[in-house]
Amino acid sequence: MKLNLASFALALTLPAVVFAQDSIAVAMTDGYPNTYSSGSANVSPFTQDSKRFNDWSVSIGAGVPFLISSDLTSINNGNGKTLFGYSAYLSVDKAITHAFGLKLQYDRGETRQGFFNTKTDDATGTGYQDVGARTQYDAVSLLGDINFSNLLRRVDNKSPYRWALHGYAGIGSIGYRAYVEDAAGQRLVTEVKPSTKTWSLFGQAGAGLKYKISNRVDLEGRLMYVVTTDDTFDGGGTQYNYREEQTSDNFLNATLGLSFNLGKHQSHLMWHDPLQEIYYKLDVLADKNQDIEVCKKGDADNDGVCDDWDRQLDTPAGARVDGAGVALDTDLDGVIDLYDKCVTVPGPVENNGCPTGSTISDNTRVLEGIEFDLDSDRILPSNTPILNNAVNYINSSNGNYNVVGGTDTRASDAYNQRLSERRANTVKNYLIQNGVDANKLNAVGRGEKDLKYPECNPATKCPEWKNRANRRVYFEAK
User: Fold this and answer.
1) Contact, 229 vs 5, CB < 8 A?
2) Backbone torsions φ then ψ of 40, nearest 5 degrees
3) Would you call 80 exposed, middle or buried from its count of C-beta atoms within 10 A (0-12, 13-18, 19+)?
4) How far is the C-alpha of 186 from the C-alpha of 11, rounded, in Å?
5) What is the pLDDT of residues 24-83, one digit of tens each?
6) Which residue, of 310, 327, 349, is where some domain finishes?
7) In this structure, how many other beta carbons lie within 10 angstroms of the beta carbon of residue 317?
8) What integer pLDDT is reported at residue 123 of this predicted model?
9) Cα–Cα–Cα angle for 111, 114, 119, rounded to 5 degrees
10) 92 exposure class (CB count in 10 Å sphere: 0-12, 13-18, 19+)
11) Does 60 share its domain with 72?
């Protein structure tokens, strides 16, 4: 018997997607980052190219289904026995936000129901309870996945967590073969298969508890309630229709499975703190007797001004700021003091803030602040203003420069050496592609031998912002 699915479909309507911001990326501009172009005005929209997390995964699992709402059930059919079947699932999962995703899932299994196990026992023909059944099924469904732990979790909670509660609901199509055994023997009583285009619409909903084994693998226990919408799924049909009011044979499916997170990034979006790109973990390494003011919302750009009242949350590393956290521009020429070669005299951006015709003397290091994600040589959007400034600076000078790459102290010396060389070459190639003469540049990798913060060896001794500063590329006059 088919069930009118109008109310069922309404009950399984997917919830509104809760959008989440992952990171703040600095817009790609050809000019300097300055008082007027940095801060909220210089925030670019989030794109797939700027994401720093994985959002695809594959899940597999196996478990036991129990028919509980049907004519023939798996649990306590009057004889005190519980009949165990088997189930398995495979799904491809896509995270839309840190709190919502979709799953395309395939299920296969067999339920066992009635008064005896048809796999191990035979009918005795001694009474009306002498009937057993089993149902083999295949199903494909689309499920919505709500991460309640992320949905309800404070976004400024920087503590790590390894458990997450998920809720699932969705609809799909199910095919099955129901067998019944009684005094007349075992026989196929109902078959719904794709070759006849008679697969039945079904729905399922439930919850799962996930445990993060590693950045790549999650373990999940899941309990789903499956509504088949058919009264013949259990094999009872009209012959053993003990519950005439029952119009759908439904079952519970308890499973244990693994999710494998796919992609090159370290974290998956469903485990990703939406604001972790802004807030660094607060580590206090100072003297215990030192008075330390702890900011409620942290200090994203480490400029000494708490984010509670910082009007410029993306101040470049090393820039001096005023009481509101805005980078200083003493001569008000549009080039902040960090990059202004003539701090007290106004000058055009193209001449590094100096009056036209003046010269720039800097024989050591210039334009620091190009930093990289862990184990990556990819140029970040926040690096492009500094690199575009480097293009103008190098093209206007007569000198040659070393493009020096460095790393933090994680991994081996040999690996860090190769990584630093890749970072230096990536920056060198960017400069050449944007008009710098290749003869002016020489890429040099120094691995972990040239730390900006030497005290960060090992890396666990320092807060993350210092380790990030060690993962850098800077320019050095030859």
Assistant:
1) yes
2) -65, -25
3) exposed
4) 38
5) 333 334 444 444 444 444 444 555 566 778 899 999 999 999 999 888 888 876 667 889
6) 349
7) 18
8) 73
9) 60
10) middle
11) yes
What are the Cα distances from residue 306, in Å, to 116, 186, 277?
69, 75, 16
For residue 274, is the peptide bond before it cis, meaning its omega torsion is within 30 degrees of 0? no
Q: Which domain holds residue 402?
A: 362-477
Backbone angles phi, psi at 7, to 5 degrees: -70, -35
Three-state SS for 24?
A: coil
Tokens of 181: 């055994």
Using the CB atoms, write b or e for 226-244: b if 16+ within 10 Å.
Answer: bbbbbbbbbbbbeebeeee
341 and 192 part of one domain: no
Top mean pLDDT of 35-49, 134-148, 157-171, 355-369 is at 134-148
Percent of all residues in the chain with a pLDDT value above 90, rounded to a whole number: 28
CB 55 within 8 A of CB 94: yes
Amino acid at 252: L
- Which pLDDT belongs to residue 465? 79
In whole angstroms, what separates CA 254 from the centre of its chain? 26
How many other CB atoms sit within 10 Å of the CB of residue 255? 23
- Looking at the structure of the chain, the number of domains it has is 3
**Main-chain phi, psi angles of 98, to 5 degrees:** -70, -10
Residue written as token pair 């049909």: 237
Please write the tens of the pLDDT for every residue from 120-142: 887 766 665 688 899 999 999 99
Distance CA 407, CA 376 (A): 10
Q: How far apart are CA 457 and CA 99, in angstroms?
A: 37
Angle, helices 384-396/413-433, rounded to nearest 10 degrees = 70
